[in-house]
Amino acid sequence: MKRPTILVLGAGYGGLSTVVKLQKTIGADDVDIVLINKNDYHYESTWLHEAAAGTMSPESVRYDIKSVIDNNKVKFVKAEVTEINIQEKVVTSSAGAHTYDYLVISLGFEGETFGITGLDKYAFSIANVKAARQIREHIEYQFATWSLEEEKDDSRLTIIVGGAGFTGIEFLGELGNRVPELCKEFDVPAEKVRVICVEAAPMVLPGFDPELVEYAVKQLKAKGIEFSIGTPVVEATPEGVNIKKGEDEFEFIKAGTVVWAAGVRGNRLIEQTGIENMRARVKVDKDLRAPGHSDVFIVGDCALMINEAVNRPYPPTAQIAMQQGDVCANNIIALIKGNPTTEFVPDLKGSIASLGDDDAIGTAFGKKFTGKKASFMKKMVDNRALYMIGGAGLAIKKGKFNLLK
Amino acid sequence: MKRPTILVLGAGYGGLSTVVKLQKTIGADDVDIVLINKNDYHYESTWLHEAAAGTMSPESVRYDIKSVIDNNKVKFVKAEVTEINIQEKVVTSSAGAHTYDYLVISLGFEGETFGITGLDKYAFSIANVKAARQIREHIEYQFATWSLEEEKDDSRLTIIVGGAGFTGIEFLGELGNRVPELCKEFDVPAEKVRVICVEAAPMVLPGFDPELVEYAVKQLKAKGIEFSIGTPVVEATPEGVNIKKGEDEFEFIKAGTVVWAAGVRGNRLIEQTGIENMRARVKVDKDLRAPGHSDVFIVGDCALMINEAVNRPYPPTAQIAMQQGDVCANNIIALIKGNPTTEFVPDLKGSIASLGDDDAIGTAFGKKFTGKKASFMKKMVDNRALYMIGGAGLAIKKGKFNLLK
């Protein structure tokens, strides 16, 4: 009997956790494990806002996939997936066709612009390492150009961040620390720079404890960040964004940089599979399989699970993606062995949003934390993700251990 | 009797050398020395190509003017000179009007584009720290964007350097070292990058020993740099440059970055003074005064002196500018004391062109040097300039002492 092939698409938190769990649990002779990823590196998507702001090097947020997989057990293919055909059970990539017995779709998120005119074209999105790198370079180029030009266009120094959710707030925290550095480096007076957060919803960080949100806004404002809340972006142009401030009231904000951090969706390839989805996210069964497809698992940002306690989806976090990877691997092994699968139950350890390198807010163990203590915990969470996937070696090599400064 | 005012315009090699020599030689009660400069820092204009390539930080190529002037003897005014009126003996700057008894014009060079269409608008010029910084950021942004974009525009990775003179060749040397770093940093395959030197004249580095020139070209070619010699740039556009390859033969080279390093001229303010000049350079008297103006000295890149041995102007170098500053200061003191002025005679110690951090060509003590030895000597020359102006402290703080790597 031919041994089964497990095909994993994407080496983000979900995919890589699945592969690591599989290679730990199963023998090389029992299955063929194939991992396909666009790049030969994994990146910490929860750290991308730091690379985008320029407070961390793009190199520091990624590591070689080969360094965490067991090359005797896992075949790694560097290729871009172009089609997923679950009827024929074949995946097409830039490296050719791949058949499978069990498929794990862990292709992560894409930015969602909700059809707002011009955002696709004129706003940056912190979508991956390359996009983050471009944002950093773009901002630096704007500062360098302002400094040089005879007739100064101050709007070059305006950065608009669309969205006051998790990513938006964390990115603002980094910018709050980065802007003074940029001013020094490029001889720009601090008062010329504007960083503005524009949010459609009437609140910052929905779902977070109001007291923590208040702390976050106060801290960010102290760093010079402006907030325009309850004012949707209605259009982006090459010169900036138009925001809606009232029934018939609009304001155009000129800005050299617009970063859209207000929405994510699943990978668009999902929409071509025929599996029922909402913005490319699939409401998976309790054992993480796509409804009606017993050999297709979906984990990470492409999976949608309802938190019945609050009747809202769980947020697309690294924490949940990694836990799903674990359960997904176990369930595939169960299926191969003819055992029943188990339900995925998230183990929510809390949530911490950083506000720059030295500050954060969060809840853990049922308690609220702010400031240096929360920042310390955030870094522990970041290091833990490295440890879970790559062990102590990776955590030491790529971890955030500058904790005492 | 009112003590005389010496007004020095510009804190480049020439101006700063003049001021440093004056403050060393003359008492605080004897004269008023006023130094006007656009920035509160001096920059090593001979190092700008390194900042532009990104092989040296812009911060490393500059230092505070205050750190080398004696604040008891010299009044420093951070302002931009806007007019020089030698008839009324008044200089206007963004800080107001300044009268003088002796004027030293040491305003340095500007880029010269010889009226070639589009160069002013679409080519960068390594004119000062801010311009160098913008070039570095522009190149990095091009690499970051290429790496991210779906449909790759390879011309983003083409860098055209106009001019195979001193600046062009030194800049190419830095790019030769920088490009592999950029490729690594931005995940760009090296073979996608083109660096092309375009020169109108039929030769590289005119005036240099042919054997050394041959060495330089060989070394730069080994780093992947292409040469198009004897092919004038006839037009620059937002997409690249058009070069003339024969009588009726033209070639358009698409390029994301065009850096024009083919010509310098004196500061345009000279042209408004009524002093006879060629491209804002004044053929000064032997004691460095402007012809017919006994109280106006001109030193550095705005001064033109003929090397009678070869019947060509001396090149605009830091070495000559600093020597002129010395003589200029002495001559002003001589005039104040009623003594005769002395002739300026350049003491040419040789000429070394770097080819990146680790290689160079040059002549000194009547001998030719290449490779690491020449590179070592180049760094000694660089350190010497710091020492001459700011003493051992400055040389140690800002010098190039990584000589043994």
TrEMBL record, chains A, B:
Its cofactor is FAD. Its EC number is 1.6.99.-. It comes from the Bacteria. The keyword Flavoprotein applies. Residues 5-325 form the FAD/NAD(P)-binding domain. It is an enzyme of class 1 (oxidoreductase). It holds the Pfam family Pyr_redox_2. This is NADH dehydrogenase-like protein. It comes from Filibacter tadaridae.
